[in-house]
Design goal:
Elements (H helix, E strand, L loop, with lengths): L1 H17 L4 H12 L4 H8 L8 H38 L17 H15 L3 E2 L5 E3 H4 L19 E3 L2 E3 L5 H9 L4 E10 L10 E11 L4 H15 L6 E8 L2 E10 L16 E10 L1 H6 L8 E8 H9 L5 H5 L2 H4 L5
Parallel strand pairs: 1-5
Antiparallel strand pairs: 2-4, 3-4, 5-6, 6-10, 7-8, 8-9, 9-10
Helix pairs in contact: 1-4, 2-4, 5-8, 5-10
This protein binds phenylalanine.
Phenylalanine (PHE) binds next to β9 and β10.
Length: about 350
């Protein structure tokens, strides 16, 4: 009787265990067959119905059957653990053949590229870099540069006022005065920086960049200026260009010049870029005015100097053939990513 029951139970158990596929089902299986007060535990309680002389033998059989059932459970448990581990490994596996997500790399802004090149050229000639304040006083921006109040030249530069006599600098030239106030010749400085004018169209922006140059020493002439500017345009545009000086007017230089570069597009024959003239205007310059030297605490009878002011946007537009200054400030990535140096 007991033996028969146990065999039946074994068949039932094997069928149930075969259907077990995961930990939850395995736990349910344990409850059903090996829990308290079910199957194998019940058999034990039934022992009392077995005649006393057969009881030890029956007890042994039940114990063995229970051990066997537990072993079955154990084997299944290990099998499921292995299957689940394999599934987890498959889920977490890294596919090393999968292409990596690309991180877009940035590049320098064209103005920064050109500014860096300009700094390199002049630093190579021994210029030191000085940066002055963007919020400037009227004295350094105008008066010390020989542009007294009510001077018509102030109209040339539409000024943003911060307060009375405090403005956003309209050019980097106040840097000249600040350097001279702090240093006796020899002076050889480059003043890069942002400048501001109330002006906005295809070739003007209310904020733009200039680079001021100032060289003061004994015996400095316009020839020194032209030699250095030749080197500058040859580095930025093309090794075979040259400069030309035309008379001009700035209150803080005397004489003043407008500097043209021979057209790097047509080689000087005349094209649309140089408007048929063979020359392109690139910057303003001149010999530092006696009064400006004096205002800077430098004796104009002993020393002379030249100064120049370069518009960085203008050079950038010429160099890359950009016809609208707006592109330089909109920062459209499609535009910017064309400049990889
Ligand atoms: N400051 C002048 C301007 O902004 C440029 C300049 C600088 C001219 C130095 C002569 C000397 O237009």
């Amino acid at each position: 009787m007991m033996k028969q029951k146990i065999e039946q139970l074994a068949v039932q158990l094997e069928a149930s265990l075969a259907a077990v596929e995961n930990k939850e089902q395995l736990a349910a299986f344990w409850q059903e067959f090996l829990g308290k007060k079910v199957h194998y535990s019940l058999l034990m309680t039934e022992l009392r119905n077995v005649p006393a002389e057969e009881r030890p033998q029956a007890g042994k059989i039940i114990n063995e059957a229970k051990k066997w059932a537990e072993a079955q459970y154990q084997a299944k448990s290990e099998q499921i653990a292995q299957i689940e581990l394999a599934a987890q490994n498959a889920r977490e596996a890294v596919d090393i053949t999968m292409p990596a997500t690309r991180r877009p790399a940035g590049s320098l802004h064209p103005i920064t590229i050109v500014k860096d090149q300009m700094v390199d050229v002049f630093a190579g000639m021994g210029f030191e870099i000085y940066e002055g304040p963007e919020i400037e006083d009227d004295y350094h921006n105008f008066t010390a540069l020989n542009v007294p109040k009510n001077h018509p030249a102030r109209d040339m530069q539409d000024t943003f006022y911060v307060a009375e006599d405090i403005i956003l600098r309209t050019h980097t030239s106040p840097g000249q005065v600040r350097v001279m106030e702090n240093q006796q010749p020899p002076i050889k400085v480059l003043v890069p920086g942002r400048v501001f004018r109330s002006d906005s169209d295809a070739t003007h922006s209310p904020m733009f960049h200039q680079m001021e140059g100032l060289v003061v020493d004994k015996g400095i002439t316009l020839c020194d200026l032209q030699g250095m500017l030749d080197k500058f345009v040859q580095t930025i545009f093309s090794t075979d260009v040259k400069t030309r000086l035309r008379p001009s007017y700035f209150p803080f230089t005397e004489p003043s010049v407008e500097v043209d570069v021979s057209c790097f597009e047509c080689g000087g024959k005349g094209c649309s870029l140089c408007k048929g003239t063979g020359w392109i205007e690139v910057l303003g310059a001149g010999m530092v005015h006696r009064k400006v030297l004096e205002n800077g605490g430098i004796d104009p009878d002993v020393y002379s100097g030249f100064a120049f002011g370069i518009g960085v946007e203008r050079i950038t537009m010429l160099k890359y053939g950009i016809n609208n200054m707006g592109y330089l400030f909109e920062n459209d990535v499609r535009f910017l990513k064309q400049f990889k140096d």
